[in-house]
Amino acid sequence: MKKIELFEPAMCCSTGVCGPSVDKELIQTTAIQRYVSVNAQGQAMFIRRNLAQNPDAFVRNPIVAQELKRQGINALPITLVDGQLVKTGEYPTINEFSSYLDMDLVAALVH
């Protein structure tokens, strides 16, 4: 099973999709996460960790802790795939998420 872990900066809620000015990347990431949870059928997992809501996860993961020590808060978001660091400082694109999970995720963004 493929596993994405996304370690995100502190946000007011678990998805960051709230408030008067919502970030397009957060909307896309939330749509992809929901799509994977419904459609992956046990073949993929997508976990998001928010610094404000789960700071212990950032400390417990040695890769994340090391990147934060090295780059500071600018390292966030940090993306791990199957425990391996694949991206820091930016959210993955739809194509990157698709590649990481070996899934066509374009349908996740179709309304």
Automatic annotation (TrEMBL):
One GO MF term on file is: DNA binding
Q: Name one Pfam family in it.
A: ArsD
List the InterPro entries.
Arsenical-R_ArsD (IPR010712)
**Single Gene Ontology BP term?**
negative regulation of DNA-templated transcription
What name does UniProt use for this protein?
A: Arsenical resistance operon trans-acting repressor ArsD
